[in-house]
Amino acid sequence: MRNIRYERIQGPIIGIAVVGRNTKQVLRKAKPQQILVLDHRDLDEMAAMSIIELKCMAVINSASSMSGDYPSKGPLLLLEAGIPILEIEPLHFSIFEDDMQIHIEEQITCSKHPLISVPYLRFSKEKWEAKQQIADSNVGIRLSDFIDNTLKYAQKEKDFVILPLEVPSLRTMMNSKHVVVVVRGSGYKNDLQALKDYIEDYRPILIGVDGGADALMEYGYIPDLIVGDMDSVSDDALRLGKEIIVHAYPDGRAPGMTRVQALGLKAEQIPSYGTSEDVAMLLAYEQKAELIVTLGTHTHMIDFLEKGRKGMASTILVRMKIGSKLVDAKGVSKLYHRPMQWRSLWMVPAAAMFPLIMLGMIHPGIHHVADVLMTYLKVSLD
């Protein structure tokens, strides 16, 4: 058992709990101003951003919020947003239940068990800095393990990429079209905003991978296709999406299909190795898309470690197969900011001249000046 020290927070925090060991499922049911009770080792950046968007009051975590295994910005983002992280012993997790009232001060108490007080260790910025230093020193070891895992599974999963993907009959036609595959990954908001003009001009097929469907809806787009295991997409997105494909395990098990059917919706499924974003990219490729633009996808070691994957064999193989048809837009918002187009600048003086022109048409004094000028010109020409 860890040596718990008490660190009093400023003023009590009182709120309603939302509890779960699967952070994605907790976030899907959480409401603003609640207290999240999680079992999440190494809080990742996307989870932190979702917690911040919900404006949660606090996070109680029964796992190490940052282990130091690899660099992570998630806990720091929460601290910078003013959301306290309180770490508790794993054995205390079972005390908490959804919708119970939690009181946090020197210790944590809850309405259902008023006689039980749970000690906590507050995760501080100083602790994050110390863990980040350890993580930086571990990068070489993690990268070596990551490469070994990637090579090992590349051999096992190569047939998944070499053989054609078994695609069900779809209403969404991608042949000779541009396709945008949106994943709710790091920086997706800025990148989606940066692609706004491209989407308006080319009208590409829009594929939302799980929570990527909600990302599209945030910007007013309706997904043409939703692909994923359905663990992080909202019910509203599923209802509005034009077509749904559930990513199933290779043996055919598809937990996401149960959720889709419970909503009274229809879906096809694709049993496959790899990630759901791999399946989405391969799907567009097999359907003869002219160009496949990916946004928010996982592209490097930290991305995959935060996702809970120890390698990226399938993703590397998929990208090798798709080749030049694939354009990765992740981070594009950091590369270039579109300047104002010169052809649009004519509207500025035109807008300024408009009231003067209207004034000239109705004001008698200006009529008189115009008549004098016209007479002068006639005399000069004669």
Question: Would you kindly provide a written description of the structure presented here, covering whatever features stand out?
Answer:
With about 375 residues, the protein is an alpha/beta fold. Helix content is about 40%, strand content about 20%. The chain is built from 15 helices and 15 strands. Strand 12, helix 9 and strand 13 form a beta-alpha-beta unit. Helix 4 packs across helix 12. The longest helix is centred in the middle third of the chain and has 38 residues. The protein is globular, with a radius of gyration of 28 Å. The chain starts with 12 loop residues before the first strand and ends with a helix.
Summarize the structure in short.
The protein has 382 residues and is of the alpha/beta class. The protein is 42% helix and 18% strand.
Overview features:
single chain, alpha/beta, eight-stranded mixed β-sheet, seven-stranded parallel β-sheet, 15 strands, globular, disordered N terminus
Could you give the distance between the termini?
108 Å
Number of strands: 15
Shape: globular
- The proportion of strand residues reads 15-25%
State the oligomer: single chain
Order of helices and strands: EHEHEHEEEEEHEHHEHEHEHEHEHHEHHH
Largest sheet: 8 strands, mixed
Which range best describes the helical content: under 10%, 10-25%, 25-40%, 40-55%, 55-70% or over 70%? 40-55%
- Indicate the structural class: alpha/beta
Integer average pLDDT? 84
Strand order of the largest sheet: 7-6-5-1-2-3-4-8
Instruction: Give Rg in angstroms.
Output: 28 Å
* Total number of helices: 15
Contiguous runs where pLDDT drops below 50 for at least 5 residues: 1-8, 342-348
